[in-house]
Amino acid sequence: MFTHHPNINLPHPDTVVWKYLDLSKFLDLLLSHKLFMSRSDKFEDQYEGTFSEPTFEEIKKLSADNPEFLAYYKTHREKVAVSSWHINEYESFAMWQIFTASSEGLAIRSTVGRLQKAVAPEQHFPQYIGEVNYIDYKKEYIPFDDAFFPFLFKRKSFQYEREIRIITDVTPHDMTLNDGLKIAVDIHQLIDKIYIHPKSENWYKRLVIELLKRLDFDFDIEKSDLESDILI
Question: What is the pLDDT of residues 152-195, one digit of tens each?
């Protein structure tokens, strides 16, 4: 269930977004009709869901008389799950390199509006969508008057990700997340087009086409723009 959050910056619904993933994860999405969201403290970036130094100093002062205040923020990371998407009008060579382990990868092209509609049927956990802000963690301040803010800020060295996130918080449900959470999605809303890895072999492209056909999906499958013939 998509819920608009008044404090979260949401780009225009027509903003184009991408998700780069391996075939196994793509098939899991198609077969289960569920989108995997990673627990926020399981990302490679150890700063994920933490505060910048100026904010942390302020929280420490507030925690002097109330130790539970700081403890809440530390454990809260274990209750928040995130699905990351890349904002870009076009394909990104860097994203192919980083998020697909081999040439057997795919990219889902969607829009912010489609993401909103895709998670709308989910009944169990409210979903929030927001754009990540990239800041200097040594100098800049992250507001903490909203529990979602730590998950919408990252260090400037990650600016290339141009990330938009679907976020959920399971704290009200008193449940434990292991690696993450799967939420029900409308696959046809989620996926606009599918792009096949630019370095993939022809047999792999045929396999993807055949798999989609057998699963009764009729998405547009695009040849990667990065695979264009060289003109001399």
Answer: 989 898 999 999 999 999 988 888 889 999 999 999 999 999 99
Contact 166, 85 (CB under 8 A): yes
What 3-state class would DSSP assign to 220? strand
DSSP state for residue 156 in the 8-state scheme: G
Three-state helix/strand/coil letters over 2-70: ECCCCCCCCCCCCCEEEEEEEHHHHHHHHHHCEEEEEEHHHCCCCCCCCCCHHHHHHHHHHHCCCHHHH
Cα 77 from Cα 42, distance rounded (Å): 9
The conformational region for residue 229 under phi > 0 = left, psi -120 to 50 = alpha, else beta, is: beta
Among candidate residues 75, 41, 4, 47, the one with its CA nearest the CA of residue 135: 47
| Exposure class string for 113-143: b at 16+ Cβ within 10 A, else e | ebbbbbbeebeebebbbbbbebbebeebebe
Q: Which residues of 166-199 are buried (b: 16+ CB within 10 A; e: fewer)?
A: bbbbbeeeeeebeebbebbbebebbbbebbbbbe
Query: At 127, which amino acid appears?
Result: Q
pTM of the model: 0.87
Q: What are 43's two structure tokens?
A: 């990302």
* DSSP code, position 150: G
Tell me which residue of 60, 53, 61, 59 sits closest to 136, measured CA to CA.
53
